[in-house]
Description:
Layout: H1 3-14, H2 17-27, E1 31-32, E2 35-38, H3 49-53, E3 58-66, E4 72-81, H4 87-95, E5 99-101, E6 103-105, E7 108-110, E8 112-120, H5 140-153, H6 162-165, H7 170-183, H8 187-201, H9 204-211, H10 217-223, H11 227-233, H12 239-253
Antiparallel strand pairs: 1-6, 2-5, 3-4, 3-8, 6-7
Helix pairs in contact: 5-8, 5-9, 7-12, 8-11
Amino acid sequence: MSVGALLGAVLLAAGDPSSAQAAERKTATVVVNPSWRTPPEATIEDYPAFALSIGVPGLVAVECVTTTLGLVKDCKAVRETPGGLGFGPAAIEIAMRGRISPRRVDGVATDSRIVTNIPFSTDPLVRVQPKPWRGEEPTPPHLAAAEAYLSLMGKLPEEDYRALLAPLPEARRAVVRSWIEELFPNREQTEAMFIRGLARTIPQRTLEQWTSGEFSEKDLSEFSDMTDLQAAMEDQFDSNAAFLELRRRYCQNYDCSAARPASAR
Length: 265
């Protein structure tokens, strides 16, 4: 065999380097990771009630399966801070509302997993002094007219804290409920404040007319927004101070700190 033929045989056996590189490029896998088309975001309606009432922020890392159709399923909270306030279950519901551009391998959509961070933020509680009542105080007959009208309306409902405390672990509910019952007015106290607010806001004669069944559309329309009534009750109970004290007690006994976001993958 000639030298030229021998060299050709060797090159043929080794393969053409440029051809090998082209083949390698052709067989390389192209992966496009999933991305959010509709990112999951917490709204005020999603916020766990008790955490919102005491102004505690939260952060949850949620891991979910993403489907080829762009849906999110099988979510679980892999990190939740602070724990015990209901942020984890709320974040799972939020994550499943999101929509994904699915993971693609060589252009073909595939199922995958994704980790996303869902923050819960709210304005911090700050001390706000209640506005003092600057109007005239109602007379005893005026208060009696307001009480008679309230009796006609029916008793104010008993406060039901079950929805507020539902996100908390069972062991904490009794503790927090005892604090609430200590810090906030009971039904009788609330009714007394409501009666004074009515008398401060509505003339005695009008209350007597309403109690007897005489209604003025003008009076009813002015009273319907309740703004004046709320202002007339504000100085009777400092709810802001009560919520601040509730937060102080809770955060002193349980964790209220939020951690850094988890790394998405």
